Amino acid sequence: MTEESIEPEATPDGGQTGAYTVRLELADEPGELLDALQPIADNGGNLLSIFHERGNLTPRGRIPVEVDLECHPDQFETIVDALREAGMNVVQAGREEYGEELTVLLVGHVIDTDLSNTLERIQTQSAASVTDLALSAPEGTEDVSSARLRIATAADRTDDVLADVREVATEKDLHVIEPQLDRGDA
After folding, report:
1. CA 58 to centroid of chain Cα atoms
2. pTM of the entire structure?
């Protein structure tokens, strides 16, 4: 596995794009997610990932959604303002300083042990972001399943993130297949 830093890219005018995260709370209604993404597209944002937890409601009875995007720094405030003007509940918005990406595999009763809770705990405990999830349950949700998680984190936090993943997995009796990290030790 190759780990890459998320570096800003130059825009045509010579400026730099940056990675940002916007956390929203959406109503559980058809078209609400699309309505939330439109202001991002209309204002020059490029989607990197969307984490939509439909089965997990916030205390206000809404669906938590995390959108990772990239844009020029000057565009970001415009995007956040456009989301609010469109009636979206913006809970948090800011620049993400993730420089590393890890891929881990969780194996066991991933679904039965509450996958949403597992993802939430990894993100909350680790100050990391699950940027991609692939789930496999070939024998159905009652049997052993696996989840491949791509996790973005700060470069100096990879060991902490892996320790948090191990802790959550141990509590839920899941097996973790970890990446081999290149520590520069030749």
Report:
1. 17
2. 0.50
Give the pLDDT band (50/70/90) at residue 169.
very high
Eight-class DSSP state of 69: E
pLDDT of residue 66 exceeding 70: yes
Are 69 and 48 contacting, i.e. CB atoms less than 8 angstroms apart?
yes
Domain boundary among 71, 95, 119: 95
pLDDT at 54: 73
CA 28 to chain centre: 20
Domain span including residue 63: 18-95
Give the Å distances, CA to CA, from 108 to 56, 124, 137: 21, 22, 10
Would you tell me the crossing angle of helices 73-85 and 32-42 to the nearest 10 degrees?
A: 140
**pLDDT of 109 higher than 60:** yes
Distance from C-alpha of 56 to C-alpha of 179, rounded to nearest angstrom: 29
Domain boundary among 66, 95, 124: 95
User: In 89-143, which ranges are E strands?
Assistant: 89-95, 100-108, 129-136
Q: Rounded to an integer, what distance in angstroms lies between the CA atom of residue 19 and that of residue 180?
A: 26
86: helix, strand or coil: coil
Cβ–Cβ < 8 Å for 40, 49? no
Using the predicted structure, report yes or no on whether residue 15 has a pLDDT greater than 80.
Answer: no
